[in-house]
Each structure stands twice: as structure tokens, then as C-alpha cells.
Amino acid sequence: MRATVGDRLVQHGRVVGQHDKVAEIIEVLGREGTPPYRVRFEDGHEAVCYPGPDTEIRHPESQY
């Protein structure tokens, strides 16, 4: 998994009825775009994230 600042991190819900969580990557802490990432969620909360298998990276050009 590789990302750059400005990409979107989408954590898919794990159970029925659980919504996806979307965050903007604001800092890449790993080498050459690898995790961990500092992210900002839509509610303004910031966290350091090591994405799991239920997560995808959406680059700006593929968001539309």
C-alpha cells in the first residue's frame, strides 16, 4: 500500500450497517509512501493509522 499527502483513506465497515470511514492523508510517516499515515477524518479528528486489509487508498484522480 502506497499513498501521498492528499489521498483519501477509506476504511470499510466490518459488519452490516456499519458505515465506511473516510479520512484525508495529511502526513506520510513511512518510507516511500508506506504506512503509517497521519489522517484527518471528516469530523476533524486526527489519528495515526496503520491500514488493514479492509482499507483502500483513493488517489485524487480516481475519486470521481
UniProtKB/TrEMBL annotation:
InterPro entries: DUF1918. Residues 1-57 form the DUF1918 domain. Pfam families: DUF1918 (PF08940). It comes from the Bacteria. This is DUF1918 domain-containing protein.
